[in-house]
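REVIEWER CHECKLIST
Item 1: Sequence provided? yes
Item 2: Single chain? yes
Item 3: Sequence as submitted:
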Amino acid sequence: MSSRIEQIIEEIEEYVDSCKFQPLSSTKIVVNKEELEELLRELRMKTPDEIKRYQKIISNKDAILADAQTKADALIADATEKQQQMVEENEIMREARQQSQQLLDQSRQQAQQILDSATEDANNIRMSAISYTDDMLANLEQIMSHASDTVSAKYNTFINSIQSCYDIVTKNRSELSPQSQNTSNYSTEDLAAADEEDQNEE
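Item 4: Structure as written out by the authors:
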C-alpha cells in the first residue's frame, strides 16, 4: 500500500503532464499556481509524519530481527542439547526399537489369528445356511409332491363320479327315448376329446 507522500508526488506528476505548453515552447508549461502550491503544502505537511512512520517501521524491523535471532539461537541450543541426549541414550533407543518391533510382530500375529478365525466362522455360517436352505427346499418339495398326488387322486375320483352319473343319465334317456339311443352313446371321454378339439381349432 503506497503512502500519502507517494500519492501526492504522483498527483503532482499527473498535474504537470496535464498542463499546456507556453506558446512557441516545448519545455515550459502554464500551471495553476494555487493548485500546485496546495499539493506542495500538503507534501511538506505529510513529510514529517511519513518520516516518523518509516522510523517506527525500521525500529520495529530491528526488534523483529532481534527477536527472531533470539529464537533462532534458542532453537539451536535446544537442538544441540537434544542431540547430545540422543547420543547418550542411543542404547536405550536401540532397546526401544527392538521392543517396538516385537510388539509390532505380536500385533500382526494376533491380527492374522483374528482374521483366520473370522474366515472360519464365516465359512461355517455359510455352510449352515446352505444346509438349512436345502432342508427347507426338500421339505417344500415333499409337500408339493404330496399335494400333487392328493389332487390327482381327488381329480380321478371326481371324473369317475361324473362318468357314473353320466352313464345313469344316458341310460335313463335311452329308456325314455329308444329312438335317440344312437346319438346318446357317447362317454365322457368322447365329449372331453371333442371339446378339446374345438378349443384347439379356436
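Item 5: Key structural point noted by reviewer: Helices lie at 4-18, 33-88, 90-176, 188-201.
Item 6: Recommendation: ____
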